[in-house]
């Protein structure tokens, strides 16, 4: 039994690429059988959409791209290019290592446009942050004490990360710990408390609204004892709509182990369609009021002279990349399922490594460009997609995808919307096979102009 179709929402550039099998074949000939294509213009448009929401809500906004979502230098350069013509501190990058920090600087991002997150920062990261006037989130009392004991020679701007009401998280401070950190920081003239941050699991609006109000309250209390406290970071977790809502509802309502090759449903699934996503979700967080506060987060931030920072990763990469694999073999399993073996591995489609499944359907492309006759009835050919390794678990798609024809050796399988966390979160040179390169589209010159991301 095959799974139901899950057609992806596709941007115009991607639809155009799928009509150019000659271009896809040319890319494969130039760089190898597996590769990713990224579109920095779409990434830049997503940046602009979030900025427009801040402007419409009258809120001073700071947008920091979560670098971990995709390591493409082209995306970080897009942040730097946007920052060059925007109000100060509008755009930047969220990093969690000295290597990411250095890569952001090399791409043209200024130090003051860098937000440093993550636990237990290394001395190298703290030195870079102080030297380049970056902002650092500290998430434990012990981190605060360590920074105070080893105060850098230059000013260090910090946020204190607040712990949500979640007993399973290991990040953030609450209650006594947060109060103690604020009090301890009064003793330093070089560690500057710029505000508070939080990051929530899940993709719901109202928990973020509630935490944002708590962070604004914390800023107001910190100001009363002399701290500048002018920034609230609400983190990431901005949802992305990969498929139409009706298709996602159908999948959730009917999901069956019979759809999957191993007979097991996914342990967890990303919400591939939500009530509100992208920039519209930010608008809800900023502009909607809840029962506990008559004023919205945006109104309170504006009246208090606070700026709101967001750190989206997946949401900025939405629609900005696809992944291409070449079919190496097709055979039929004893249960009648076609197994398509492709170049590359499931490590280049990272969702599979979290007891999950990447649901938007891939497209099967004939590199010769042949198309079925329009009057030919479509006969579905259920198939799973496997990587070219010795691992039984190396499956890019373990659900039986209802392809419109049977795959052939040499075909291309194109996975949609993979820029956010899919391309390189888990990639490695397993079997000494090179990691698939990222190819950057340059639409301003020609739809067929591209280069390797470096």
UniProtKB/TrEMBL annotation:
Protein EC: 4.1.1.20
GO MF annotations, alphabetized: diaminopimelate decarboxylase activity
GO biological process terms, semicolon-separated: lysine biosynthetic process via diaminopimelate
Domain of life: Bacteria
Pfam family, one: Orn_Arg_deC_N
Gene3D superfamilies reported in the protein's UniProt record: Alanine racemase, Lyase, Ornithine Decarboxylase, Chain A, domain 1
InterPro entries documented for this protein: Ala_racemase/Decarboxylase_C, De-COase2_N, PLP-binding_barrel
Main enzyme class: lyase
Keyword terms, alphabetized: Lyase, Pyridoxal phosphate
The name this protein goes by in its record: Diaminopimelate decarboxylase
């Amino acid at each position: 039994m095959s799974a139901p179709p899950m057609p992806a929402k596709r941007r115009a550039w991607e639809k155009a690429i799928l009509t150019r099998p000659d271009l896809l074949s040319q890319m494969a000939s130039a760089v190898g059988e597996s590769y990713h294509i990224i579109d920095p213009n779409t990434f830049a448009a997503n940046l602009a959409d979030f900025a427009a929401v801040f402007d419409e809500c009258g809120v001073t906004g700071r947008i920091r791209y979560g670098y971990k979502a995709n390591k493409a230098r082209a995306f970080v350069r897009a942040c730097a290019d946007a920052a060059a013509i925007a109000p100060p501190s509008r755009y930047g990058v969220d990093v969690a290592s000295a290597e990411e920090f250095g890569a952001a600087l090399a791409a043209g991002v200024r130090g003051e446009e860098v937000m440093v997150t993550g636990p237990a920062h290394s001395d190298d990261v703290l030195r870079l942050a102080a030297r380049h006037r970056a902002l650092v989130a500290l998430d434990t009392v012990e981190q605060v004490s360590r920074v105070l004991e080893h105060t850098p020679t230059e000013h260090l701007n910090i946020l204190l990360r607040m712990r949500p009401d979640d007993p399973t998280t290991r990040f953030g401070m609450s209650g006594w710990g947060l109060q103690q950190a604020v009090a301890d920081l009064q003793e330093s003239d070089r560690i500057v408390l710029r505000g508070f941050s939080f990051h929530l699991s899940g993709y719901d609006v109202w928990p973020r609204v509630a935490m944002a109000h708590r962070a604004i309250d914390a800023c107001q209390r910190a100001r009363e004892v002399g701290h500048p406290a002018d920034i609230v970071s609400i983190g990431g977790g901005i949802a992305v709509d990969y498929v139409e809502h009706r298709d996602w509802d159908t999948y959730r309502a009917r999901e069956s182990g019979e759809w999957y090759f191993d007979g097991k449903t996914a342990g967890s699934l990303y919400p591939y369609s939500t009530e509100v996503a992208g920039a519209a979700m930010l608008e809800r967080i900023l502009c909607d009021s809840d029962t506990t506060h008559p004023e919205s987060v945006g109104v309170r931030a504006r009246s208090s002279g606070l700026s709101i920072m967001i750190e989206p990763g997946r949401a900025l990469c939405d629609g900005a990349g696809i992944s291409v694999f070449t079919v190496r073999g097709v055979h039929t399993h004893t249960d009648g399922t076609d197994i398509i073996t492709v170049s590359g591995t499931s490590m280049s489609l990272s969702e599979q490594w979290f007891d999950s499944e990447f649901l938007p359907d891939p497209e099967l492309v004939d590199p010769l460009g042949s198309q079925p006759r329009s009057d030919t009835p479509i006969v579905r050919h259920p198939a799973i997609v496997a990587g070219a390794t010795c691992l039984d678990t190396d499956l890019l798609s373990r659900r039986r995808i209802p392809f419109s024809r049977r795959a052939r050796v040499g075909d291309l399988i194109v996975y949609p919307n993979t820029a956010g966390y899919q391309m390189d979160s888990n990639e490695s040179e397993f079997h000494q096979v090179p990691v698939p390169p990222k190819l950057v589209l340059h639409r301003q010159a020609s739809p067929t102009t591209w280069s390797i991301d470096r």
